[in-house]
Amino acid sequence: MKHINIFLLSVFVAFASCSFTTKTFDDPDKDKLLMQLVTYLLEEGHFQPKDFDDPFSEEVYSRFLKTIDPYKHYFYKSDVKEFEAFKTLLDDQIKNYDLSFFNLVHNRLTQRIEESKAVYTEVLGRPFNYELDEVYQSDAENLEYVSSKKEMINRWRKQIKFSTLTDYHDMLSDAVNDNKSNADIEEEARKSTLKNLQEVSVYFDDMRRDDWLAMYINAISESFDPHTYYFAPQFKDRFDAEMSGKYEGIGARLQKKMDKISITELISGGSAWRQNKLQVGDVILKVRQEDEDQAVSIVGMRLDDAVKLIKGPKGTNVILTLKRVDGTVEDLSIPRDEIELEETYAKSSIVKKSKYKFGVINLPKFYIDFEDVNSRNSTTDVKREIERLKDEGMDGLVLDLRNNGGGSLKTAVEIGGLFIKEGPIVQVRSTGEDRQVLKDRDPSVSWDGPLVILVNEFSASASEILAAAMQDYKRAIVIGSKQTYGKGTVQNVIDLNRMIRNNTNGDMGAFKFTTQKYYRINGGSTQLEGVKSDVVVPDRYSYIDLGEKDQDNPLSWDEIEPASYELWKSSIDYETTVQKSKERMNSSAEIKLIDENARWIKDARSKDVYSLKYSEYVAELKKNEKESERFDALSDYTTNLSFESLAYEKPIMANDSVFRIKRERWHESLSKDIYMDEALNVLTDLNKLPKLDKLSAAKN
Question: Which of 233, 256, 422, 608 is geometrically suited to a Cys-Cys bond with 139, CB 3.0 to 4.6 A?
Answer without folding.
Answer: 608
